[in-house]
Specification:
The protein is built from four helices and five strands; from the N terminus they run αααβββββα. 24% of the residues are buried. 27% of the residues lie in helices and 23% in strands. It is α+β, with helices and mostly antiparallel strands and 145 residues long. The longest helix is centred in the last third of the chain and has 13 residues, at 119-131. It has helices at residues 2-12, 20-25, 35-43, 119-131; strands at residues 54-56, 62-66, 75-85, 96-103, 106-111. Strands 1, 2, 3, 4 and 5 form a five-stranded antiparallel β-sheet that branches.
Length: 145
């Protein structure tokens, strides 16, 4: 197990160095306004029962650059962290983070969550949520319908 963690850390480590000049030239577009609705529109059709899901938005949009690694391309934009608990027998058992990147009002990339359910996407989302200032994800009480 220790070896797997080391290999994962090496693969996630930044391979790319971005200069301050390159960072200054990145165009994030205007801060998105419809980010909550866009995140919900992305998530809801991918969950077994969106009505039972508990979705929280612990951060507001913040500028973020995802460095290129062996497993992910460089992406940048206004990023938001979302905590999702599907609360459904056919859904994911534990709550999970998802990070959405926007340039202006356009969603340009997603880390973690439905459609990116693998250890790499989950690790990127968890780390990026921390970078964005989101508190650690907590298990929410089960919602009664």
């Amino acid at each position: 197990m220790h070896r797997i963690a080391i290999v994962l850390a090496v693969l996630l480590a930044g391979c790319e160095t971005i200069s301050k000049d390159e960072l200054a030239e990145l165009d994030y577009g205007p801060r998105p306004k419809g980010w909550r609705a866009a995140a919900m529109n992305y998530l809801e059709p991918k969950m077994p029962d969106a009505k039972r899901a508990q979705i929280t938005f612990p951060t507001e949009p913040k500028a973020l650059v995802q460095r290129e690694t062996l497993l992910r391309d460089r992406h940048w934009g206004w990023a938001i962290c979302v905590h999702v608990y599907e609360n459904h027998p056919d859904g994911k058992e534990e709550p999970y983070p998802v990070v959405f990147l926007f340039r202006g009002e356009k969603m340009v990339f997603v880390n973690g969550g439905p459609g990116d359910r693998n250890p790499i996407g989950a690790a990127f989302a968890k780390g990026q949520c921390a970078d964005l200032g989101a508190p650690p994800i907590k298990l929410l009480p089960t919602r009664k319908d």
